[in-house]
């Protein structure tokens, strides 16, 4: 089984998309771990999809999170990755203790609505969405993506 989690220093990060980096472990092959920096810090919206793609490329089947937004949760679930939300803080060193029974320390999230609603997404995209409403475009399909937010092409 391959698992992944966002981390900040030596703990599972509080928020999935805002973590410093991600760690992927193959629990069946001792010592096989990869870490990668969070691409969304540099790539903005496009970085979120890169996170999912890297998880898929490594063959991750389970992700451990503290908090996760609805949009990212939806992406992971669509990629057939199981997502477990921790009931409290967990250090990276303790991950091995629960590898056979995540239900002891986490609840499985099975629907995007179980994630946190993104207030920032709503704020960042409300102006864009209202001006583009008549064009029937969303910020991910007809706009230029910048650092952490989208820019409508007709705003430039």
Automatic annotation (TrEMBL):
Keywords for this protein: Nitrogen fixation
Organism: Celerinatantimonas diazotrophica
Gene3D superfamilies: Dinitrogenase iron-molybdenum cofactor biosynthesis domain
Protein name according to UniProt: Putative Fe-Mo cluster-binding NifX family protein
Pfam families listed in its UniProt record: Nitro_FeMo-Co
Keyword field contains 4Fe-4S: no
UniProt keyword GTP-binding, yes or no: no
Classification via SUPFAM superfamilies: Nitrogenase accessory factor-like (SSF53146)
Recorded superkingdom: Bacteria
Domain Dinitrogenase iron-molybdenum cofactor biosynthesis span(s) in chain numbering: 10-86
């Amino acid at each position: 089984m391959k698992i992944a989690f966002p981390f900040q220093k030596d703990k599972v990060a509080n928020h999935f998309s805002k973590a410093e980096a991600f760690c992927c472990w193959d629990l069946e092959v001792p010592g096989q771990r990869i870490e990668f920096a969070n691409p969304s810090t540099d790539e903005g919206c496009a970085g979120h999809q890169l996170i999912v793609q890297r998880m898929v490329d490594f063959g991750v089947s389970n992700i451990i999170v503290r908090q996760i937004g609805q949009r990212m949760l939806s992406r992971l679930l669509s990629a057939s990755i199981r997502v477990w939300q921790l009931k409290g803080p967990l250090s990276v060193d303790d991950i091995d203790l629960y590898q056979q029974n995540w239900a002891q320390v986490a609840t499985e999230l099975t629907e995007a609505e179980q994630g946190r609603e993104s207030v920032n997404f709503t704020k960042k995209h409300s102006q864009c969405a209202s001006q583009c409403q008549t064009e029937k475009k969303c910020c991910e399909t007809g706009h230029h993506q910048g650092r952490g937010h989208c820019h409508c092409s007709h705003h430039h």
